Amino acid sequence: MNYVYILHSAKLSRFYTGFTADFDTRLDFHLNSEQERKFTYKADDWIVFLKIECESKSQALAIEKHIKDMKSKIYIENLLRYPEVINKLLEKYKDC
């Protein structure tokens, strides 16, 4: 399965958006890796804000790009507040 995920750090008041085919391994990397160059190294309080299950890798990558292109904390918060937006994204990028 492929996922788009959004992590949130209250400490940084920031979101991190990513894509993976192995969510548990990727989350463990963000929470426990010692690599200083990765963005999520800057805080130790990351929580899973949202996880979107996608039908394909190309769909997940397109949705991840869409969310990142919005460059909006409010848009990300609204994804959780209004689940119908996620359904529209899944439909829009269904045949990528």
Automatic annotation (TrEMBL):
Gene3D superfamilies, sorted: GIY-YIG endonuclease (3.40.1440.10)
InterPro entries, per the entry: GIY-YIG_endonuc, GIY-YIG_endonuc_sf
Q: Where is the GIY-YIG domain?
A: 1-77
Highest taxon above the source species: Bacteria
| Coiled coil location | none
* Protein's UniProt name: Excinuclease ABC subunit C
For this protein's source organism, the top of the classification is: Bacteria, Pseudomonadati, Bacteroidota, Flavobacteriia, Flavobacteriales
